[in-house]
Amino acid sequence: MATTSIDKNAVKSESSHFDALVIGAGFSGLYQLLCLRDRLGLSVKVLEAGAGVGGTWYWNRYPGARCDSESHSYCYTFSEDLWKEWEWSEKYPGPPEIMRYLNHVADKFDLKRDIRFNTKVESAHYDEKANVWRVTTAIGETCTAQFLITAVGCLSTANVPDIPGLDAFQGKWYHTGHWPHEGVDFNGKRVGQIGTGSTGIQAAPVIAETARHLTMFQRTANYSVPARNGPLTPEFSHWIRDNKDEIQKTMRAAVNGHPFLLSETLALSVTPQEREAIYEKAWETGGLRFRGAFRDLVTSNEANATAVTFLKRKIREIVKDPVTAEKLANIDHPYAAKRPPIDTDYFETFNRDNVDLVDIRADPIECITPAGIRTKSGADYPLDIIVFATGFDGMTGSLLKMDIRGRDDLSLKKAWAAGPRNYIGLQVAGFPNMFMVTGPGSPSVLCNMPVAIEQHVEWITDCIAHLRNAGLARIEPEEEAVDSWVAQVNAAANATVLPQAKHSWYLGANIPGKPRVFMPYAGGMAHYRKICADVAANNYQGFKLSA
Ligand code: NA7
Q: Which of 244, 418, 513, 524 is the most exposed place for a label (fewest CB within 10 A)?
């Protein structure tokens, strides 16, 4: 397909020109490639830093890693054939199975031939005259494209805290987001783990099984609900295979894109006994379904407080040592205000003889010594291995790590100095023809990711098709539309308890110096889908389209 309004002379000296460049070969990048190449007939190249497909699953191979969406909802729905031929083995698959799935998708649709692996993007600069994005890789190659799609994932830039002394540590250290593919042998080792988010809560029980000793360094105590993982029964697998439409309909109607709806009941509309019974049942069911026990758990502080009481009591019931139980239950934020972890035996792990908990809010880490970790009180914890389960520079980190410049050399860093400003989470003013898949300003991390990804990728594909059919060459949002969307993102967050967790990565609070802005759109996936569809139906209202 011919490109419109491109100064070919300006790009002919480049090593390669494409209609579209996609950065990242995870769930988003793979589907974006398929849509643009096979449905629109565009020339497309995907640039991927890893040696294979998989995105977040390629890097996050730490012990205990599992998806926290149910497997039958953590997959693509665009192909009936793919849906029917793939059978998940477990309710919450781990990286090997998800990687098998994504490789299967890539092979089935012959995607790998258009992916350049081991290719890290350093910069992407928009050339207004030529109307192209000029993308440079770490080894200095350059390619150009009319459209640039960032499919870089929300949790790809590891946050290794700047703790003095790490360089001189004589043991080994690892961040969970860059886990060695050959694995780590904890046998007989004294392990220190920093971080008790979703990742740390998954990793600790598995590390404790083989380590000589595990010391958990907890800064913020966290809620967790049992995942209740297990193999899928043949009956359930058959039901999945035959009910794609129904499952997809539910996911599209659900606030968070999961294959279940929130209860219609309000937490305080029932008696304490009834409430207790509903929570008990939700606890037994386990997983993120717990959050759906009542309709208003994330919109009412009073409702949320009932869940808090229940969940803290569970911790005290499970953990035998009352001092440890108290540290674990000393949680300072509403339930689900931070991403709610789900676990397999997390709290039970603290009943093991080889596991200790250190409250580093009470006694912060002072430094890492050659032999281990030292806290402010002077206590020394000798260690052979330190595991950083310390999360990511979420949502914006991977975008800002690249030198992205739009019109008039405006850098994305500068445009987002006060936080990620964009229009419906898809485009940034001053950055024509650049689209973000599940970036800030969209439901993304508050949603079951494949659902959010399919919606974004299909919207972007339709938008590009529209431009080309109409003989248009550029699209970018109007400033006023951006202002209005930023206000809507803030209003949606403030209608929930989510911004109350002041240390949440949703707010960028885990990264020193990062602006504190609630980044994802908390108005619900179903509502957001309608907003995006209406924008497109109204001739891309809020966007400037030009030849
Ligand atoms: P999270 O949820 O950001 O958790 C990181 C954990 O690491 C959390 O307990 C942090 O404490 C702790 N942390 C971060 N920096 C430090 C320092 N400097 N010192 C001590 N402790 C620290 O990341 P995860 O990888 O667990 O999960 C990310 C997402 O992946 C998750 O939401 C799912 O969507 C999947 P804090 O709470 O900041 O006090």
A: 513
